[in-house]
Amino acid sequence: MISLNNVTKQFKAKSGTITAVDNVSLNIKEGEIFGIIGYSGAGKSTLVRMLNGLEKPSQGSVTVAGKEISKIKGSNLRKARQEIGMIFQHFNLLWSRTVRGNISFPLEIAGVPKAQRKKRVDELIKLVGLEGREDAYPSQLSGGQKQRVGIARALANNPKVLLCDEATSALDPETTDSILDLLLDINKKMGLTIILITHEMHVIRKIAHRVAVMENGKVVEIAPVMEIFKNPKADITKRFIQQVTDEEDTMDTVQHLLDKYSTGKVVKLTFIGETAEQPIISELIKELPITVNILQGKISQTQTGSYGTLLIQLDGDEKHIEKAIEQLETQQVGVEVIGND
Amino acid sequence: MIETFFPNVEMSKFWEKTYETVYMTGISLVFIFIFGILLGLLLFLTSKGNIWQNRVINWIIAAVVNIFRAIPFVILIILLIPFTRGIMGTMIGPNAALPALIIGSAPFYARMVEIGLREVNKGVIEAAQAMGARTSTIIFKVLLPESMPAIISGLTVTAIALVGYTAIAGIIGAGGLGNYAHQYGFVRGNNDVTLFGTIAILIIVFIIQFIGDLITKKIDKR
Ligand SMILES: Nc1ncnc2c1ncn2[C@@H]1O[C@H](COP(=O)(O)OP(=O)(O)O)[C@@H](O)[C@H]1O
Ligand SMILES: [Mg+2]
């Protein structure tokens, strides 16, 4: 659906040449939700702006839905852009138009006749859940509602691809969740390919299938979201994962837990993918004469499975505890004995 | 009441002169609006980072605008005498004032239009480009509507300045209330006529300001 081949983008500035995107190659499949994460200035925006030709690559080629965006110009480029929706951090709505007027705008650009426009706008208003607010101006809407207008507008011409540049970064956590749910829903219903830029790992965890980590214009790591959580390679990736696993918080309380549960063994289980849904603990209790105390745990859902850690205390006969750990190790969970032996 | 306080005011003359002022202001305002928006758009679009970015053209337009803005209006009238004769065929009456009024005020208004356009959110222009809008669509459906409050309030300011210019033009022979206050009031020693003309000019200015503010407020949905 989307492919970038050795794409580099340089800007000439007074201070010299800035390489915003540095030799990036990517392939994104149809229907995929592809996340791009990186800190500010990593080159994420520049990268997606090359997908709809707002920026031209200095080197390399960009192809979206069979069209070589980096090559085409004029009316061909404008036509291609109508098939690529985009939403923005600050929504970028026309203040002078109502909700209806804003959603109608891309249809006017595409030359859709008035009667059809009205019908399509009504459909879109329903899709994004803005019934009753059709005639409001953007200044009368909340941030979440504005982004819904942004999404409706981006989808008006039935695009094949949706680009989201920090689309939830200006929203509070709850609104972020509802917007991400809407994007997921659209992805499932219409099979829309979504490219999502963010600096927040929880956004990636919640909706992305695959993720690319960017640093200094380079893609330093690219993998399915579960893989990234299971086995992060680059330091920057580990830092992003820490954003959502609160590792430090957990470790603070571990010592406290070890003191409190001083018998048996305290074990940390790391669940990845489907294993989180399997009845591992209950089987353990059924098969061995031991007690299992759950001390602490957090499981998060991602698009390709669950991810999380669980801290348990195994108490009972030494022999049986050894057996239990062996049994756990045969399952697809990470097992780490962290205390009391 | 008018007869007791303003004994020398002859109403038919007064209305004729009022009409001339409104006529000069109104006609020139239409042209100023058109030329001002055209020039303002050119100034904006050719400036750095915009769709038609072009340093040379931008420099030339900016230079012309600045020169015409800097020339005092009285001198502009004199400089334009041959030009006005050429296209209007006369140097007296309200029509003779039009070229100077338009050329004197359009650059001023163009600058205000440009300032308004610069305040249009860059992100919105970019969103329109990302939707595949052509430049004309961006001009007519994004730039102008999004800067409309500035365009209207700028027009109000220009119209008020214009009433003042018509008075100056009137003294030189173009008709209107300035001409009335000068020729029928000052020259004949009728201070009441001068005062009456002045009050009429003030009322026109207030009406323009009121209408301008009303429209600006009504269209601004920010
Ligand atoms: N139009 C531009 N001109 C000059 N430098 C730019 C331009 N756009 C982006 N940059 C630079 O490119 C780098 C990457 O920017 P950007 O793609 O916006 O990063 P991100 O979206 O990841 O925060 C930054 O150093 C930024 O200053
Ligand atoms: Mg950015």
UniProtKB/TrEMBL annotation, chain A:
Positions of the ABC transporter domain: 2-241
SUPFAM superfamilies on file: ACT-like, P-loop containing nucleoside triphosphate hydrolases
Gene3D superfamilies for this protein: 3.30.70.260, P-loop containing nucleotide triphosphate hydrolases
Keywords: Amino-acid transport, ATP-binding, Cell membrane, Membrane, Nucleotide-binding, Translocase, Transport
SMART domains in the record: AAA, NIL
Keyword Membrane: yes
Gene Ontology terms for molecular function: ATP binding
Record keyword Nucleotidyltransferase present: no
InterPro entries linked to this entry: AAA+_ATPase, ABC_transporter-like_ATP-bd, ABC_transporter-like_CS, ACT-like_dom_sf, MetN_ABC, MetN_ABC_transporter-like, NIL_domain, P-loop_NTPase
PROSITE patterns in UniProt: ABC_TRANSPORTER_1, ABC_TRANSPORTER_2
Pfam families linked: ABC_tran, NIL
Name by which UniProt lists this protein: Methionine ABC transporter ATP-binding protein
Species: Pallidibacillus pasinlerensis
TrEMBL record, chain B:
Membrane topology summary: Multi-pass membrane protein
Official protein name in the record: ABC transporter permease
Start and end residues of each ABC transmembrane type-1 domain: 18-212
Assigned keywords, A-Z: Cell membrane, Membrane, Transmembrane, Transmembrane helix, Transport
Signal peptide: none
Subcellular location: Cell membrane
PROSITE patterns: ABC_TM1
InterPro entries according to UniProt: AA_ABC_Transporter_Permease, MetI-like, MetI-like_sf
Transmembrane domains' residue ranges: 22-44, 56-81, 87-110, 150-173, 193-215
Gene3D superfamilies given in the database record: MetI-like
Family the entry assigns: Belongs to the binding-protein-dependent transport system permease family.
